[in-house]
Known about the structure:
Elements lengths: L15 E4 L6 E4 L9 E10 L10 E7 L3 E6 L2 E7 L2 E5 L11 E8 L9 E5 L2 E2 L25 E3 L2 E4 L4 E3 L6 E10 L9 E3 L6 E3 L12 E3 L19 E3 L6 E2 L20 E4 L4 E4 L4 E5 L7 E10 L5 E7 L21 E5 L4 E4 L2 E4 L10 E7 L5 E7 L2 E2 L12 E2 L12 E8 L4 E5 L34 H7 L2
Antiparallel strand pairs: 1-14, 1-19, 2-11, 2-18, 3-8, 3-14, 4-5, 4-11, 5-6, 6-7, 8-9, 9-10, 12-13, 14-17, 15-16, 20-21, 21-33, 22-32, 23-28, 23-33, 24-25, 24-32, 25-26, 26-27, 28-29, 29-30, 29-31
Amino acid sequence: MANRGSISTGYDIDNSVKLETANNEWFYNASPTAGxxxxxxxxxxxxxxALGTINASGTQFVAGQGQHGRMHFSGDYFQFRFDDGxxxxxMTTKHRDTAAWLxxxxxxxxxxxxxxxxxxxxxxxxxxxxxxxxxxxxPDIEDQGTWFNTNYLTVGTAPFAGSYSGGDxxxxxxxxxxxxxxxxxxxxxxTAFGEFDEDSGIWKPKDLSDITWGDEGFYxxxxxxxxxxxxxxxNSNNLTVNNxxxxxxxxxxxxxxxxxxxxxxxxxxxxxxxxGATKWKPSSGNWQTTTASMGFTKGKxxxxxxMDGDVTSAxxxxxxLENDTTYDGYYLGYHTNTTSMGMGYYxxxxxxxxxxxxxxxxxxxxxxxxxxxxxxxxxxGTANMYVAKDNVWQNSGDPANGTNGFALNYGNAVxxxxxxxxxSSLYQNPGYWQxxxxxxxxxxxxxxxxxxxxxxxxxxxxxxxYYALCTKNLxxxxx
Length: 479
């Protein structure tokens, strides 16, 4: 049921926004006008990039209003608070899939005679019926709640600062948001915002042009990088940005989901993932390795990487995904067994490490160098890696022609059951590995080159035949 953006929808969401707890990035309306406090609907798509306790409160807010209006993830469970004493939550489902987009609908109408119809929560089009009340209950009939009143409204955090008149960094979320819709005066079913694909059964987004927004409704499409809080409902109920820049706009969306680093690779909790899971570092330990969030068995894939900060020992390359316990305490290429195949290009000497040994391949590289990696996985089960320093392919490699690459597992056939992806290693470094998989990145991009399908934004054009690792490309080339 998870939406991984891999199906043709007939409707494309072009943009999302990246929000990061560490940067206090959120939206707000300091003085909204009151709307219908009994009947309303929220709909949004979210791709989480940090789980569990990542801030002082231990709670990641998607939106809030005043003291008691709350929509948040706590312990990775989702909870909605209508007002003080009326909390509705599902404590059976943890939302921990950081590789997929999740659609959430909260539909409220306290005029309903049945209490369970007064607040309905849907995940990917399916209503959750396993409700827990956190000591509260459903709202009473004809109750007026905290939402759509004149209190301070936030998206991406909670208004708990001061007299609930400002956003509070202790409650910020980390992740991507897309198509955030707030409807004043109507309790909509999820089918107003999405539908099940008739072939795959996957929940997918719909065009929202038929929504009746009400006077105080708003619709954040995040499609204008110069005004990311702009309201697209026609109401001009714009939100103000806090620490959000044009660069925080992303093309990672529910209709084309892009790869990131994988926050689920935690290695006993010693990793830090930031900036939409495009940066990572170990906080302790010896060598540590992480992988990307999307795997493949075939195809040709391109991504760019750059070290950030005080990094002395680092590798970048490819890794089999089946056995992530082998990443803890090891670098790429350390293992010789067939369930942990991988290889890494080492910054200190320019060698490629694989199967427990290393071979001369290219030159060492400092943190100022942009490293391009092209992975070629053939139908016959063989695979090659090519590495570029500032667009100069090492070892006279030519990915487009398939020459002078470095063969995975010494040229032996790749296990047909194995999934592989981009990977990187760091040795006790305070700095980060930055990745550009084609969507949001903190790496400075000046040329904005895309692949042949028009996907991705890279500093250098991907080699001919190589593509950004996103779900539209995976559905075509990924096996």
